[in-house]
Sequence to fold (236 residues):
Amino acid sequence: MTRYTKVAAALHWLIAVAILANFVFGTWMVDLDLSPAKLRYYSYHKWLGVSVFLLVLLRIAWRISHRPPVLPAHMPTWERVAAGVSHFALYGLTLAVPLSGWLFSSAKGFKTVYFAVIPIPDLLAKNPPLADTLKLWHLSLNYVMALLVLLHVAAALKHHFMDRDDVLVRMWPFGRSGSPSSPSSPCLSAPHRSPWTWPEARSRSSRSRWACRWTARCASSTCSSISTPRSRRPAA
Ligand code: HEM
Fold:
């Protein structure tokens, strides 16, 4: 597998946009004066939050049943460990943030009715002192998640602009999906498949793509060299 499946990539970006939107929307709505409009906005916030919760469950199920592509060979151990730990924490937080909002809403005594149609069961009985604590948890978990998302984005940009590997590109949903564990898949991992690639990689890869097409097998060093970060390639 050389890149994420389309479903995994679509879920990744959909959840990312929904979380960002709900973060901004939640921060904005709490400071409004009490009005029917504010209560409506709270409902929109809850609907989007519950949708994120369901999408994250779907994403975790997909992740368990579909192995992700392997990390680039040049990554040192500390980076691999950091990536594993931060991805695990991100899955946990993207569940914990909506869950804390749901618990808070239940303890506050406000029922959530999904899209004004499906009543969501209350997880707790009404309990105002507990609601105050859960509100603080909802806020704090949001800030921890925001910090981790910033680190995650910084790491992705480092891979793309400094290491110049395909870690960011392979999560892009519009490329061709890699065939799982296919021996010819190194051809598909070539960064030339994306318009976001470096000019040097693109010109090297058009030659290699030609070679891959004609040999139908891509076990040769021609193809694997495309995935090697530019900074680590021997001088020509
Ligand atoms: C993607 C998921 C979610 C994100 C990113 C998110 C984010 C936020 C943020 C940033 C705030 C503002 C906190 C503050 O400044 O005090 C907030 C408030 C709130 N959230 Fe969420 N939230 C999510 C899911 C949910 C869910 C699923 C529910 C309930 C079912 C919920 C219920 C609430 C409520 C009721 C408030 C208002 C708190 C108050 O009255 O001060 N949230 N949320």
Notes: Helices lie at 6-29, 36-65, 77-108, 128-163, 185-188, 199-215, 221-227.
